[in-house]
């Protein structure tokens, strides 16, 4: 009888998507190491938040979670499950493991600050991996489709004990202005010193054309001291690329593998997660020297 | 070799040209540097991405400077044959640009061995460079919004095969039924850096 009960339980270890909000995707640690094939890393935009969510429910830190953009996700449990939300706080117990009974719903409201909420479930989301990852890459189209109402997500079996942590004391993503550390990029010398000075003196506005690929920033137009074309070259998240408009793009998780515009600087990798929580209208400042 | 900064987790090595890129890339694949999680060749650069828990860009720079590039980019890699039906919409334009007949374009495209120099633009899109005489073909004045998958194309000094339907500005000379990118296959990309390619006329 026990075996039968366990197998019934395992077939109902699911989360049904009732509503998705503006955008919800499955994300994990991404696809590192495949850049030479033209495959980008992808994965959670705020890696630290996704890893914390997994640790709170006793998962591998890079297990697949849901990345919810501006709240609005409603999930129904197919069995008794344990969930945790991290990142942007959405009116439910946050940064803490929470049981969700079978047939009950988790409803995420609109976060007061921050953009992306991570929902981990004990056992992980076990949709079919593509090239070793369950991440949806919105640039290349690899990975599972963007979530839609009615989707039924399989949930894995727990692999490790619960961590015995009630609450992780981490600050919420801030509203308003954010300052991050910047380092020189490979093509900082394509810009005159007045452009690199303007870069760190400007409060850049995050525009509405921002997404998982990158933040499009608006502020001072950065002029170049060199004209001519740059042969495309490899880059990673955190790259600050300056297209001919002079308005930089800060690349995030779904950055292209290569780019053909000069990269003036790089946001320090540990700070890129915080940039992934910025909403349109917030401002971003860079601290550091570009030469 | 010029080593350029690329943030706290990567560095960008700039070289004189494609042959030097292929030589260094081949050496870095044959003898991986500790803590390097990705090596991305491009037209004149090789990006090395590190695992910050294992190493630093400065340590990787030292290791790269000690690396001896493989000499001779040709001959080492696996050889792939791609049957091509040469009925591309731009075959006549390419022939006109080169001042030859369409049949001459096909003979030249099939008559040389190509090497994948690097990938980019889309997963599995390889930039192929010829062993023989270099090509120089302009891009189309106006890019197509939809290029069918399997399209065999030319632009600049490169040839390529579109892995899936996408927009594109390259000149289409033919098509192949071979899937150059398939996530169910390992490796998914047929045309990886260093792989040699021979196009076979299947018209």
Automatic annotation (TrEMBL), chain A:
What Gene Ontology molecular-function terms does this entry list? ATP binding; hydrolase activity
Q: Which domain of life, per UniProt?
A: Bacteria
InterPro entries, sorted: CT_A_B (IPR003778), Cyclophilin-like_dom_sf (IPR029000), PxpC (IPR052708)
SMART domains the UniProt entry points to: AHS2
Q: Which residues form the Carboxyltransferase domain?
A: 36-290
* Alphabetical keyword list: ATP-binding, Hydrolase, Nucleotide-binding
According to the record, the signal peptide region is none
Q: Which NCBIfam families match?
A: urea_amlyse_rel
The protein here is known as Biotin-dependent carboxylase uncharacterized domain-containing protein
UniProtKB/TrEMBL annotation, chain B:
Name the UniProt key words of this record, in alphabetical order: ATP-binding, Hydrolase, Nucleotide-binding
Q: List the Gene3D superfamilies hit by this protein, alphabetically.
A: 3.30.1360.40, Cyclophilin-like (2.40.100.10)
- Pfam family example for this protein? CT_C_D
Location of the Carboxyltransferase domain: 1-191
| InterPro entries to which the protein is assigned, alphabetical | CT_C_D (IPR003833), Cyclophilin-like_dom_sf (IPR029000), PxpB (IPR010016)
Q: Which GO terms describe its molecular function?
A: ATP binding; hydrolase activity
Q: What PANTHER family does the entry give?
A: 5-OXOPROLINASE SUBUNIT B (PTHR34698)
- The name of this protein is Sensor histidine kinase inhibitor, KipI family
Q: Which organism is it from?
A: Geodermatophilus obscurus
């Amino acid at each position: 009888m026990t075996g039968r009960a366990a197998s019934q339980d395992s077939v109902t270890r699911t989360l049904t998507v009732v509503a998705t909000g503006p955008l919800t995707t499955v994300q994990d640690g991404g696809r590192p190491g495949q850049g030479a094939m033209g495959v980008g890393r992808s994965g959670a935009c705020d890696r630290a938040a996704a890893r914390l969510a997994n640790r709170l429910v006793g998962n591998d830190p890079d297990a697949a979670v849901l990345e919810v953009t501006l709240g609005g996700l409603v999930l129904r449990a197919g069995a008794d499950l344990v969930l945790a939300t991290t990142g942007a706080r959405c009116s439910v117990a946050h940064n803490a493991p929470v049981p969700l009974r079978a047939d009950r719903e988790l409803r995420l409201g609109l976060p007061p600050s921050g953009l992306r909420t991570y929902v981990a479930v004990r056992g992980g989301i076990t949709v079919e991996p593509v090239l070793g990852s369950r991440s949806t890459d919105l640039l290349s189209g690899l990975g599972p489709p963007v979530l839609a109402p009615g989707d039924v997500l399989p949930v894995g079996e727990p692999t490790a004990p619960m961590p015995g942590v009630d609450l992780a004391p981490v600050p919420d993503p801030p509203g308003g202005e954010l300052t991050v550390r910047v380092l020189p990029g490979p093509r900082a010398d394509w810009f005159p010193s007045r452009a690199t000075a303007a870069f760190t003196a400007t409060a850049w506005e995050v525009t509405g054309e921002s997404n998982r690929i990158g933040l499009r920033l608006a502020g001072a137009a950065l002029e170049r001291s060199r004209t001519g074309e740059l042969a495309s070259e490899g880059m990673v998240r955190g790259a600050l690329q300056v297209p001919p408009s002079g308005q930089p793009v800060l690349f995030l998780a779904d950055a292209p593998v290569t780019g053909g515009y000069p990269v003036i600087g790089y946001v320090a990798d540990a700070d890129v997660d915080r940039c992934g929580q910025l909403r349109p209208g917030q401002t971003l400042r860079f601290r550091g020297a570009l030469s | 070799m010029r080593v350029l900064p690329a943030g706290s987790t990567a560095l960008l090595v700039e070289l004189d040209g494609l042959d030097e890129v292929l030589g260094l890339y081949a050496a870095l694949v044959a003898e991986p540097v500790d803590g390097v999680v990705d090596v991305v060749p491009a037209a004149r650069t090789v990006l090395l991405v590190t695992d910050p828990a294992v190493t630093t860009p400065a340590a990787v720079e030292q290791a790269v400077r000690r690396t001896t590039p493989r000499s001779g980019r040709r001959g080492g890699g696996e050889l792939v044959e791609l049957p091509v039906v040469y009925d591309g919409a731009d075959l006549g334009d390419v022939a006109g640009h080169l001042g030859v007949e369409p049949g001459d374009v096909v003979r030249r495209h099939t008559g040389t061995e190509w090497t994948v120099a690097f990938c980019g633009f889309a997963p599995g899109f390889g930039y192929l460079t010829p062993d023989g005489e270099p090509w120089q073909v302009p891009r189309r004045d106006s890019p197509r919004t939809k290029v069918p998958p399997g399209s065999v194309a030319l632009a600049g000094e490169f040839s390529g095969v579109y892995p899936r339907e996408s927009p594109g500005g390259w000149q289409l000379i033919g098509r192949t039924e071979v899937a150059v990118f398939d996530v169910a296959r390992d490796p998914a990309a047929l045309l990886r850096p260093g792989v040699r390619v021979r196009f076979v006329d299947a018209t």
